[in-house]
Give the backbone structure.
Amino acid sequence: MADDTSAFEGCTPEAAEKCNTALHCRVLVVDDEPDSRALLLDALALWAERECLELHTAATGEEAVLRVRELHGEFDLIVCDIRMPGLTPGELLTVVSREYPELLFVLVGSYSQRELVSAIEAGFFSYVIKPWEPDYLLAELGKALRFVKNRNELERYTTFLEEELRWGGELQRRLLRVELPQPERVPVRHLYMPLPRLHCGGDYYDIVRLSHERYAFLIGDVSGHGIKGAFVTTMLKTMIYREYIRRHLSEFNPAEFLGWLNARVFYELRALPDLVVTFFVGVLDLECSEYTYASAGHPPALWFGFDADAGRLTFREHLQVAGAGFGLLADAEYHSRTVKLEPNDVVLQVSDGLTELRRPDGGVEDAELERRAASLTGSNPVAVCEDLIAEIERQGAQNAYSDDVTLIAVALAEMRE
């Protein structure tokens, strides 16, 4: 079954060279009358050469379906006579669009209410009435071709952005990667989940061993998603490690640390518009079983006990303390609070993405993390935390969240002798 016209037939050497290097399009001309089909091809020849188009033909709707399937849908535009035996244009459009919905149809022919209604229901791009004027026909096909090229360019650009964001997300994960404490001393589980299409985000988290007995757990949130947020979290990571953590391991104090970091953010990032950064820091002291924390406008941590008989976490308190978000005041003051933990107690530090869960109707409701955590059962608090993280990941896969999601679950192991 040969085409009436092969690709680039009649091209000048210059045009052929251009077509070999350009991202060309394929056009399928469908008409059951040989004379009418030849007339269409003659009208399209110069246009096809100029635009680097491959022209293919089919004499029936059934043959057109075969042509499309032979090239696995690699056509961009189908020019079809509205009156043909066998498959009508509407039926052809329906069959082809079911497999290759991106293909555009331009119908050519005299007015036929039945066929036109069928084609309208199936969906087509344009309609040219016979007898057609060559200039008008080429103008309509030109509009269709520009649509195809713009769509293809958008798809290529979207693919490029997707690859860049994926690379940015992988780099951010490597930069935010943490060294977990020894699990027998401090059982810790954590989750970082940026918005799926963006791959990277504005949530910050870190776990720092201050000494053999003290561990710091840091979590923050930069306004915005994607590259903007990821860039700022990378800056924070660099500033915190190089300028503060290394110099203050032994005397690390959450409130003093937040005061220092706020001043640095205010100085370094004040020129960036609409930037808001919140932060929460908790320090676990194993020697005295104390958890000391401070906040810079961040959602509070959640403190749970564990009912061993029921195998459930029992909510105790929101660990909340006042403190302004970073960058608002250069000399903002922060304060620490300390709570005494019991064996098997759990502290959840979270980003605000966990407080905004999408409803099926598209609205937003409080996620009530404390209720969700307390509804799970397990043999120990760490197992319950693992189930909670698995549930959050499942919801994330269903696009239940409208923001990046980060969680650090810190459990106090059984009391040592």
